[in-house]
Structure of Haloacid dehalogenase:
Amino acid sequence: MVSNIKAIVFDVYGTLFDVHSIVKKCEEEFGDKGQEVSLIWRQKQVEYSFLRELMGRYQPFSKITFDALKYAVSSVGIQPKEEQLLQLMAEYQHLTPYKEVETVLSSLKGKQLAVFSNGSRDMLEPLLNNSGLQSYFSSILSVDDRKAFKPTPTSYTAVLEELQVERKEVLFLSSNGWDISGAKSFGFQTAWVNRKGSPREQLDLQPDIEIEDLSELVNLL
Amino acid sequence: MVSNIKAIVFDVYGTLFDVHSIVKKCEEEFGDKGQEVSLIWRQKQVEYSFLRELMGRYQPFSKITFDALKYAVSSVGIQPKEEQLLQLMAEYQHLTPYKEVETVLSSLKGKQLAVFSNGSRDMLEPLLNNSGLQSYFSSILSVDDRKAFKPTPTSYTAVLEELQVERKEVLFLSSNGWDISGAKSFGFQTAWVNRKGSPREQLDLQPDIEIEDLSELVNLL
């Protein structure tokens, strides 16, 4: 269970927004290979953030996302065209929020809510503006301010400094098991939004709570 | 092209040995889900090494490999049994070398050859002994001596100190694109063993040479 929460902090991609909602656009561009492109794109996007952090070669998530898309398109045997890639990148500013998100955020009004993402501001701000969700959050936090990706401890310190809270006063929500592991390791209280019914990560770090989607959050606080 | 090489250093899993050669054992245990278990096992094994490094929670690769197997079995809806898991783990000491490996190593006799792996010694030494390949190498190098996984710069320094060579005097070979990126970033000369005809990683780091399997190596030196 969770208790004494002063700030509720949400991951963005996969947690508030469905990153596979761009699969339709990928199918328009690449036909029956669209779904595969969409999946590899997301997988490589995350992998490249890990690898660049490990190698000490940080680049903003917008560049990483573009590079991951180039890889994904090549991997299905298609020669990537710049114009096509830019059109698909633009979709990242128009992702679809999961259906329960706005209702849940509305019901949490009065609490300190923030987002904290690997995304750079050139991706996050247009997305939150376009979706109409921006007004629910007091802070938009990006790892880009410190140039250190999640799940490094350095990355999560941004939340403490920006929101003026202690580690154990933060409830952090993410659908990404690796992000929940990193946040738990850092000392946040954590809720894993396990939308797909995945098994627990085997990293010796358990989430404080596990929920199927954000609607369960309202009863927990 | 590569030149002025004083040491030839090989990655192990996927480079000298086929990690999916255990798919048969997985199929014996899990029937038509065996192949999926084998693939997820390898994917999670690599991911967990990245994540533990990023979180500052190093554990030896033997533990990570066991944890990844537990995840993989759970992910196909099977309750993992300890005995079954230990049997599968034992297979990691009996991986099959790729068919050209021994011929190539024989032809390189007289050169300084080493392996450098994320694997811990409790995995590497039995594997190399059982396969009969151990005698070809002057050094068995494991990241476990420094407790830092590839592709961190710290991990690759082991090669310099143990073999008493400069960065640019090392030819490093791996089939893993992320390992080649890390080695190139560190300053090794690199040969990507692209066994599956994969596209290049989009990490702004290109291998010095790309080969389909190790047999091309003989003509390059």
Notes: Chain A touches chain B through 32 residues (CB under 8 Å). Residues 19-91 of chain A form a domain with the DNA polymerase; domain 1 fold (CATH 1.10.150.240). Chain A has two domains: 7-16+98-220, 19-91.
